[in-house]
Amino acid sequence: MDTEISGQEQSPLQLDLNEVTRKILFLDKWRGIFRLGTNNTNPQNHDSSHDSGEEAKDGSEMLWHKGQGQLPSGGFCSIPKLFMSSRLSGSPISPAMATMLQRSLFGNTVYVLGSNWRKAHFEFQRPFSDLAFALQVEKGGAQSIQMAVQGSIIKYFLFSREEKDCNLHSLCNLSQQDQERALAAVLAGILWTAGAAQKAIVCFVTKDIRSTSILDYSRDNFIERLQLFEFSEKEATERFIYDHLQCFKGEGSHGVILFLYSLVFSRTFERLQEDLDVSTPHLLQSRAGSILCSQAVINLILTGRASPHVFNGYEKGRSEETLHGVLTRSDVGYLQWGKSMSESDRLSQVGSMLKTPTFPIWLCNIGGNCSILFSTNRQLLSDWKMERVFDLHFYSGQPSQKKPAHLTIGELLKRLSVYFSALRDVAGIV
User: Fold this and answer.
1) What are the pLDDT digits (tens) for 239-257?
2) How far is CA 264 from the centre of its chain?
3) Which letter, b or e, does each residue of 358-367 get, where b requires 16 or more Cβ atoms within 10 Å of its Cβ?
4) For 377-395, what is each residue's pLDDT tens digit?
């Protein structure tokens, strides 16, 4: 199977794999040291996502480097309850591919995704309800992936299905089968786009460890069980995901992690290096003990390219380095706001490729929290007359929200105008 890990000598991201393999094998003597203080010394015992060592008391989502002292209690990754049959014709992950996967995600090989990530999967709200179209969203770094996928799910329900009404009622009148078909179609579509419409690779987990050297290397008892399935047709990808959807949506499936791995392999390591720049050398970021998605991950889901920035095209950074922005108009848009952002900072301003998407759906990043803003009227972005008064719906992903919020923008702006006029009169401002 072609996973495009060739050309390693000329790439700064890729290591000399012979040297990597030698170091991997050398780490065998450290296994006992890293497992001190844990109850699960046998890797075969990690068969549940709710084992006693899963939750780190300090809330950490990463495994510390061996030079930083004792490991947090939740450092070791449990194995999903749901397995893919090892008899299917997939290709087991190799030590070289595992190394490249880790370095593409973290920039090193010493971190693993923690408990919040391992819990995250793609599960819908109750069918035939006010939020039947919506995913249940977890806290932590996986939230941005779930909400980015949520935007494409809304696009599918409103604008991709034939002979379906584009209204809010249609989003509530969804069966479980409707939900599952949408999830399979959306995940397959995102992977296919990331693969440049040439191929998609889906990662699942098998019961058997395929390489003990990876186990010594990864220490998370998870990566070494990955099996990769490659498809040269989008429809075949969708059918395969639909047939094995429980591996993405089941509780304990590690579904978001598997989707992230599939996204990386579909994009290929070579393309990822071309997408990224000096400001973002890898896809995940460690911040305050948590592992978060960079903008490159969000853009990869929205546009199929892991561009690290939100402006259009290319820009020069403060040190004259070339920074990579969005090159194509996105189907689902993106808006952001944060206290640290300045209108004078051109590099933080969202460009038209994301601000005015093909469909009236926006992933909103407000202070690091993701939400979805959408309209059921597709003409909103193509007919200026629709901009006078229009409706938007808002889904925050918060458990407290029981139905999408409804905003009428024209009336809201009129009321704000009246309100500010009254304030000027009271204050005596001309």
Assistant:
1) 999 999 999 999 999 999 9
2) 10
3) ebbbbbbbee
4) 988 877 766 666 788 999 9
The whole-angstrom separation of Cα 271 and Cα 2 is 13
Q: What is the pLDDT of residues 177-212, one digit of tens each?
A: 999 999 999 999 999 999 999 999 999 987 766 554
User: Any idea of the CA torsion for 76, 80, 83, 86, to the nearest 10 degrees?
Assistant: -10
The answer to whether residues 231 and 200 touch, using CB atoms and an 8 Å cutoff, is yes
pTM of the predicted model over 0.85: no
pLDDT for 53-71, tens place per residue? 333 333 444 443 433 333 3
For residues 208 and 227, the answer to whether their CB atoms sit within 8 Å is no
Whole-number Å distance between alpha carbons of 203 and 90: 9
Looking at the DSSP bridge assignments, the partners of residue 92 are 227
